[in-house]
Amino acid sequence: QVQLVESGGGLVQPGGSLRLSCAASGMILNSYPMAWHRQAAGNQREWVATIAIGGGTNYPNSVKGRFTISRDSAKNTVYLQMNSLKPEDTAVYYCNPMGTNYWGKGTLVTVSS
């Protein structure tokens, strides 16, 4: 049974940093390109980062230069390092093996003073 568990969210002040983790069981994340998405209250889910199987990364302009996606194959985990956080980054963050319909429950990030 595939399970994805996102963690690392919390309350942070504007300008602060958080590192999110996405741990998997029942599947090898290194076998998939991986994505992070987020969904703010009342909004549609939006993509924030991808990492290819070969390690190439891509980001939308809204987070480019502030967010970094990475993976640790030994831990079967994908990370999202978020720096210079803004209030508009407040959302529930989800990881997703691209091309699958596997999703975790997400982790809430709140950026507020």
Describe the structure.
This protein has strands spanning 3-7, 10-12, 18-25, 34-39, 46-51, 57-58, 67-72, 77-82, 91-97, 107-111. By secondary structure, the protein is an all-beta fold. It is globular. The N and C termini lie far apart (40 Å). 30% of the residues are buried.
Major beta sheet, specifics? 6 strands, mixed
Order of helices and strands: EEEEEEEEEE
β-strand number: 10
Radius of gyration: 13 Å
Secondary-structure-derived class: mainly beta
Residue share in β-strands: over 45%
Distance between the termini: 40 Å
Major sheet: arrangement of strands = 2-10-9-4-5-6
Whole-number mean pLDDT: 96
Write the layout of secondary structure elements.
Elements: E1 3-7, E2 10-12, E3 18-25, E4 34-39, E5 46-51, E6 57-58, E7 67-72, E8 77-82, E9 91-97, E10 107-111
Parallel strand pairs: 2-10
Antiparallel strand pairs: 1-3, 3-8, 4-5, 4-9, 5-6, 7-8, 9-10
Protein traits:
113 residues; mainly beta; six-stranded mixed β-sheet; globular
